Amino acid sequence: MKGLELARAFYNEYGAPMLEREFPELLPCLCVGLVGSGSECYGYDDAVSQDHDFEPGFCIFIPDESVTGENGRPLVDSRAEFRLSRAYAALPKEFCGYDRNLISPVGGSRHGVIRIGDFYKKTVGAADGVLEIRDWLSLPEYALAEAVNGEVFFDNYGAFSAIRESLRRYPRDIFLKKLAGYLLIMEQAGLYNYPRCLAHGETAAAQLAAGEFVRAAMHVIFLLNDTYMPFYKWSFRMLRSLPLLASLALPLEDLLTTPNTTEKAAEKSAAVKSISIAVAEAVATKGLATDISDSSGSDAVPALTRLAYAVNDLISDPTIRTMNILCGVE
Fold this sequence. Notes:
51% of the residues lie in helices and 6% in strands. The protein is an alpha+beta fold.
């Protein structure tokens, strides 16, 4: 059974009755789901994943203690938080053949009772989810992915889901800045440095260049799909399921796994070019460029550097537009 399915079933059978029976007065202030770190929050868990941090469990998100009601008191004070945590810990220790992890009486860090502000402070660095320009540019994409993945079973209070939706995608200018930077890296690492490293006989350096190209290309593909790229070990799996450019997963994987022998190097260089063309065409279909060809016309390879600066010129905020073009690259 998948972790998300297990969490939902455990909540429906034991969690919901417990909350309705013991905490009816708190139900309007609660949000329940499974969100955050862990392969189960993406639906990518399997038998191997169950060797650590896998259990029947869910999250009960509660307002920060600073959030008060009409009486001036916290909607969920520390005493109520402790009672909720104890009740959660007292739920059955086994479900559907899976044992629950041992947690302290005040709950666990990934499951159990979690303050809304604590969750978003941990994932994106801001308790209210409000990010400044430099926050958006510097936060790793996997952190944003963890803030919006998984599933919310219900949210009576609404604050958790409101923050979640505000973080769902990059603001337009941030999207453009990051896209421009990764397009530039694609040309620099793949179209320029990869063949030069091979010409120098530096096969290890060539492989590093190929890796930088793959990573940048994947970031571009995720950006064009309006989806955050998850932690690296799940990135290819998610890439293969994206609506746009999922077909590039295999040639990108080959660039990482194929050795730089004399025979294979030419194939890999050709793959870099074809991937670059496909990415540039996808950028054009998004209305972000009209001319993607190299002015020299050689091999029909797109001038990704020129494309990168054209994308950067579309940024409306002059502060963001004039920042270094690579400021959003991880």
